[in-house]
Amino acid sequence: MTDVIKRDGKKEAFDANKIRKAIEAAAKEAGVAQDRIVEVAKSVTEEMAEIAKEKGEIKAERIRQDVLNTLDGLEPAISEAWRAYDRTKKSRQD
Predict the structure, then answer these.
(1) What is the mean pLDDT of residues 70-74?
(2) In what order do the strands lie in the sheet with 11-13?
(3) In 31-75, which residue ranges form alpha helices assigned H by DSSP?
(4) d(CA 54, CA 74)
(5) How far apart are CA 27 and CA 12, in angstroms?
(6) Measured distance CA(38)–CA(71) in Å, rounded
(7) CA angle 88-86-62, nearest 5°?
(8) Are β-strands 57-59 and 11-13 bridged in parallel, bridged antiparallel, or unpaired?
(9) Fewest beta carbons within 10 Å, which of 30, 40, 42, 62?
(10) Contacts of 14 (CB under 8 A, 6+ apart)
(11) Is 9 left (phi over 0), alpha (psi -120 to 50) or beta?
C-alpha cells in the first residue's frame, strides 16, 4: 500500500477516489460534458493509481502536479478550472 505524505508531514493511505472527486468537481466547474468527465476521471485516476502502486510513499503535491500535467494533455479546461479554484482558495487564506 502506498502512503501519501501530506503538506504537514502526516501520512495517509493513497485514495484514488479523492483524485476522481477533485477531477469531477473541476470538470463540472469547467462545463465539461458528463460522459467526458467520466472518461477523463477514469483515465487519470487509473494512471495515478499505477504510479502510486510503484512507490511506497509519494508526496501529495507530486500527485497534484502529475494529475494537472495529465489533465493539461487530456482536457485543459479541467486543469484550468482546478488551478483557478486553487488561486481562489489561496487568496482567501491570505
Answers:
(1) 96
(2) 11-13, 3-5, 57-59
(3) 34-53, 60-74
(4) 23
(5) 26
(6) 13
(7) 165
(8) unpaired
(9) 42
(10) 1, 2, 3, 4, 49, 52, 58
(11) left
